[in-house]
Specification:
single chain, alpha+beta, Nuclear Transport Factor 2, Chain: A, Glucose Oxidase, domain 1, 7-stranded mixed sheet, 27 strands
Length: about 775
């Protein structure tokens, strides 16, 4: 018989708790029997006999019922009675019931279920497979082949033919074996051997049910439930935030009650690989939308995932198992956290088995690490509820994979970062060693190399960026006899991959920092500079989007907003130009990776790690870092008129939500518990999630703002209306703002005003001395 999934059991317990809070303890509706002085187990037996028909049972179904445990709770006097059903002298696995008898002898809280109609069932009564064969089947299922045969050390006999065995080569202690019946999903009773053994290698204490006729594995569970993942764990966003740690059983017991490797809702994982109910993670290097063979790391019986990783020496292709494990961990974290805020089964979340919670199943996320379909990007494809989404994470190419190693003069000897070009050959690891020569084309900015020039053959040409294409500069250097070309950036920004196309270019080239170029040019032409331009090797390693949890959260967030806006079966509601999809995803990343020490004015970048930047002073891949400081991020509603669609438009929405986030944190504090905290950060996130459910299909910014206001009225009785208005008004989406059509970003009108009710509140608050720009903790 199939056990009740923990999520359903949890719902029953919650329901019971609510009932007990609403009904008096002596209310007759709670109790199934009148007070009695009989022994508690006799009270239970008597009720089962008299109520058998109402429970769907016959007398024969109760013939083999026996008490397995009985004890009394001291503080309330309740006696708990546990019963198991048997048939033909054999226990039926999970055919159990529990009953409770209070101190006055009244029965209440009958739970569980027995198998009905036993008398009419045709079941096997004698095994074909031996007990020894059942042990071998369980070991073989784990890929273990003992050299010796198990030795029987005890036989208790009886209907269950109970015996005890030893196999010290592989198993610690004894191996108990007995016959049982197992009710499968087709409601058939199968005669099985129940075998349990603890492996000496520490990879599990396994409990198997082996078909006693066919020898097939019917079910198994691991009594050791711990799972370990070595990852860049919450709240870390990327390797910039510190080293990996071992996270033990990080699943949320409510959102993923059977852990991350379960798919049937019953105890025990169905897989020891990076796959389970919420996500199937693997690599897809050849970009055929299928798992690369063997690319799901195996945690073994103990579910220990600790792949090697050395970012100082390894290219992404060398640490694929670590990338997959990190992607698996984070996609599951996102499932669990968002489940707590309402992206659950009825709302269209991503699960194989919805455990009877509503919605459609069989739609776990296919998380494809190091997908070969692109670079410097990621994506999330969201079909309707019941169809599997796909998340593709790419490798991000190092924009500065090369190095310029200066040998002389002594004053500037050292190694300098250098980018690459999208045309011409790449630098080799041995490189090109030559003297540097600053170009002079005699026209305008003479050092830009935009006109033909001459230089000493074989030298490395140095030219300034600007006034013409990179390909023109390098081709002119090649025509002048240069062995390579170095372009000096004309802004303080990092060097990047130089674009352009010219198939006739045969010399390598790259860009260096503005400050480094100034240093080099100060030594030219005298005393002169000798250097080697080369591939940087490990120093120029690419980076993997699978290690940037901010990007993973961003992509997963697209799946959330697409299924919540318009309903889980209608995922085409965010295709309009003025829509906030990219903004919700950015903001989800900000929420997940915030820390207690952050300030409201702390600049928060997005994917600075993948942009090869320092997150402390960079914007990442967005126009501005996120902060409530308008001098650092000046974006307002009108900014969408000139912003790129959809990412630039979304960045404006995320800036507005970040203002709202801080309004809530200023008032309600901050909680580091993202699953169940009660801080302002939690409250703000809940309103945004609920707002997505309330807003119309194809929402513009005003629609999305109004949905959040409505969510606050529903959730909190409108207690936070003015906080929400202040946040949006600061960025131009105030009371009088209008959006026009959601298909255009050009027809909106920004406004910075508040509704009259909030103007009164603002006046009363104006006498405050001030408010802190740092959050307080709600968790002590």
């Amino acid at each position: 018989m199939k056990a009740i999934p923990r999520r359903q059991a949890r719902a029953l317990l919650v329901g019971a708790a609510l009932l007990s809070a609403l009904v008096r303890a002596d209310a007759p509706s709670i109790y199934l029997t009148a007070p009695s002085r009989e022994a508690p187990r006799e009270i239970v037996y008597g009720y089962l006999r008299t109520a058998a028909a109402s429970l769907g049972l016959e007398a024969a179904d109760l013939a083999g019922v026996a008490v397995t445990d009985e004890y009394r709770t001291r503080h309330n006097g309740v006696t708990h009675v546990y019963l198991r059903q048997s048939h033909e002298g054999l226990e039926i696995f999970n055919a159990v019931m529990n009953a409770n008898v209070d101190s006055e002898g009244r029965l209440f809280g009958l739970g569980g279920a027995f198998v009905s109609g036993l008398a009419g069932r045709h079941v096997a009564v004698a095994p074909v497979l031996s007990a020894e064969g059942a042990i071998g089947a369980g070991l073989a299922h784990l890929g273990l082949q003992p050299r010796a045969v198990p030795a029987e050390v005890g036989y208790e006999g009886g209907s269950a033919q109970q015996s005890r065995w030893r196999l010290p080569e592989l198993v610690a202690g004894e191996i108990p074996v007995r016959l049982q019946y197992y009710r499968d999903e087709s409601d058939e009773l199968r005669l099985v051997w129940n075998v349990s053994f603890e492996l000496r290698n520490g990879e599990g204490w396994w409990n198997y049910w082996v078909d006693a006729v066919s020898g097939a594995i019917v079910a198994r569970e691991n009594w050791i439930d711990h799972a370990t993942y070595r990852v860049f764990a919450l709240p870390k966003e990327s390797p910039d935030d510190g080293p990996r740690t071992d996270e033990i059983d990080p699943h949320d017991a409510i959102a993923s009650p059977e852990g991350w490797h379960d798919t049937d809702g019953l105890p025990g994982p169905e897989s020891t690989l990076t796959m389970g109910n919420n996500v199937d993670a693997y690599t897809d290097v050849d970009s055929d939308n299928n798992p690369d063979p063997g690319s799901r790391p195996d945690g073994g019986g103990l579910l220990v995932f600790q792949p090697n990783l050395d970012l100082t020496t390894q290219q992404p292709s060398s640490y694929r198992p670590a990338a997959v494990v990190n992607l698996f961990y984070w996609t599951n974290i996102l499932h669990d956290v968002f489940w707590r805020y309402g992206f659950d089964e009825p709302a269209g979340n991503f699960q194989v088995d919805n455990h009877g919670g509503g919605g459609l199943g069989n739609d776990d996320v296919r998380a494809e690490a190091q997908d070969g379909g692109g670079n410097n990007n990621a994506n999330f494809s969201t079909p309707p509820d019941g169809e599997r989404p796909r998340m593709q994470m790419f490798v991000w190419l190092n924009p500065r994979p090369n190095r310029l190693v200066v040998h002389s003069p002594p004053a500037i000897v050292g190694t300098y970062e250098m980018g690459e070009a999208g045309f011409g050959p790449a630098f080799t690891t041995s490189g090109i060693t030559a003297d540097l020569q600053l170009v002079n084309d005699g026209v305008g900015t003479t050092t830009d190399g935009c006109e033909a020039f001459t230089l000493t053959a074989g030298r490395i040409a140095v030219a300034d960026r600007g006034n013409c294409s990179f390909a023109v500069k390098v081709k002119n250097a090649q025509n002048a006899g240069a062995s390579a070309a170095v372009i000096v950036n004309n802004t303080p920004d990092p060097p990047f991959t130089m674009g352009g196309s010219d198939p006739t270019i045969t010399i390598p080239s790259g860009m260096i920092w503005l400050v480094d170029g100034a240093l080099l040019k100060s030594q030219l032409p005298s005393p002169g500079v000798n250097a080697t331009a080369k591939d940087g090797g490990g120093a120029g390693a690419d980076r993997d989007g699978d290690l940037d949890a901010g990007l993973i959260a961003h992509e997963y967030g697209h799946g959330v907003s697409n299924r919540l806006t318009g309903g889980p079966s209608n995922v085409g509601c965010l295709g309009n130009n003025e829509q906030a999809g990219e903004g919700w995803s950015d903001w989800m990343t900000l929420f997940l990776h915030s820390r207690p020490e952050d300030l409201s004015t702390t600049p928060r970048s997005f994917s600075a790690y993948l942009n090869f930047e320092n997150p402390a002073n960079a914007a990442g891949i967005r126009p501005y870092p996120y902060t409530i400081d308008m001098t650092v991020n000046p974006q307002t509603y009108d900014s969408i008129k000139t912003a790129a669609v959809p990412h630039g438009v979304g960045a404006v929405w995320a800036a507005m939500l970040w203002e709202m986030y801080w309004e809530f944190v200023f008032t309600h504090g901050f909680s580091a518990d993202l699953h169940a905290g009660q801080g302002g950060n939690n409250l703000a996130f809940q309103l945004v999630m609920d707002g997505m459910k309330l807003q119309p299909c194809s929402p513009h910014f005003v629609d999305a703002r109004d949905a959040i206001l409505q969510a606050d009225q529903v959730d909190n009785g409108g207690a936070n209306q003015c906080r929400i208005w202040r946040a949006f008004a600061k960025r131009g989406l105030g009371f009088s703002a209008s959006a026009g059509s959601s298909t255009s970003v050009l027809d909106g009108t920004e406004a910075f005003d508040l509704p009259a009710s909030c103007q009164i509140e603002l006046f009363s608050d104006g006498f405050e001395v001030g408010r802190t720009e740092h959050w307080s903790s709600t968790t002590g």
